[in-house]
Amino acid sequence: SCKEDVVEPKISLTAGEVTETTISFTATPADAVKCAYKVVLATEELPTDAVVLAQGVQIEAKAESKQTVSDLQPGTEYVVVVAVQNGPKQKSATLEMTTVEPQIPAATISVTAGEATENAISFTIVSADATNVAYVVTDTAFDHELSAEEVLAETCLMLQNANPTKSCVFR
Predict the structure, then answer these.
(1) CA-CA distance, 62 to 85, in Å (whole number)?
(2) What is the pTM (predicted TM-score) of this model?
(3) For residue 93, what are the CA distances in angstroms to 58, 60, 62, 99, 145?
């Protein structure tokens, strides 16, 4: 019989750039007639080679190709599964990749003194990149230094003569 043996296909993966919402990788198939990929959460069960080839994104089977996957969640671990096929033979490779955690800018705040009278004071608060801003006014007899958590808490109270008088939380 002159029947040729079908060569086992091969696939190699190389991780590329990762951002908050994208991952990229290079797939290098060999001896393949079909190549496809799927990206799944690392917590999910990996799809079979047959599922990747049937339902995955079809890519170049005869040459190396760079792929970028978008619309992913920041700070999340994913698994790229790439499957190749040559005749009845299938093979796959996996690559674990994690998107970048979002960078949260440091909040800044400044307070500028305004006018002071016998029974009133004024001041200006300017903040940037803050999600919450609150303040507390105390008299000089108040001897407890409040933490940022205490000031920002829902129960934060404006203090006068060390006695709570009214809420001071802004939204």
Answers:
(1) 11
(2) 0.64
(3) 15, 15, 16, 19, 58
CB 64 within 8 A of CB 98: no
Whether 51 and 13 have beta carbons less than 8 Å apart is answered as: no
Of the candidates 64, 74, 62, which has an alpha carbon nearest to the alpha carbon of residue 32?
Answer: 62
Cβ-contact 8, 14 below 8 angstroms: no
What single string gives the DSSP state of each residue in 119-135?
S-EEEEEEEES-S--B-
Alpha carbons 70 and 21: distance in angstroms, whole number: 6
The whole-number mean pLDDT for each consecutive block of 10 residues of the chain, a chain of 171 residues, reads 79 97 98 98 97 98 97 97 97 97 83 82 76 70 74 50 42 35
Contact 32, 84 (CB under 8 A): yes
Strands (E), 49-144: 57-59, 65-69, 77-86, 89-98, 108-116, 121-128
Q: Who's near 54: CB < 8 A, 6+ residues apart?
A: 36
β-strand pairing of 65-69 with 77-86: unpaired
Instruction: State residue 94 phi and psi, 5-degree precision.
Output: -125, 155
